[in-house]
Recover the amino acids of this structure.
């Protein structure tokens, strides 16, 4: 899989596991990471097998990553933003309580 040339738009920089990744504004996190040759987004909770994006449309959940401190975010459904901090997920992650409390406020950093 490769990204089609579309380098005419504004660029943003995100971090993935501490490494800088260049992206175009409007890219999803998954598209940006794949274009940067990052294929391992998470490991499975049971066997620790590596997983990466499969469907790229929000169905398979193989693209789960931690974004800005919030676990279990779908990289294929999340648009990049300058300075975004993305971490790969190792095994099961806790459910972020604010997502289910009705409080839409961002978690404290
Ligand atoms: S790649 Fe399938 S849900 Fe993101």
């Amino acid at each position: 899989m490769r990204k089609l040339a579309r380098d005419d738009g504004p660029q943003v920089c995100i971090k993935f596991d501490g490494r800088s990744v260049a992206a175009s504004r409007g890219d999803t996190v998954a598209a940006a990471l794949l274009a940067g040759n990052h294929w391992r987004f998470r490991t499975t909770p049971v066997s620790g097998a590596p997983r990466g994006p499969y469907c790229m449309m929000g169905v398979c959940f193989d693209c789960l990553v931690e974004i800005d401190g919030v676990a279990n975010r779908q990289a294929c459904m999340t648009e990049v933003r300058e300075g975004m901090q993305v971490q790969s997920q190792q095994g099961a992650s806790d459910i972020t309580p604010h997502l289910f409390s009705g409080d839409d406020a961002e978690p404290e950093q």
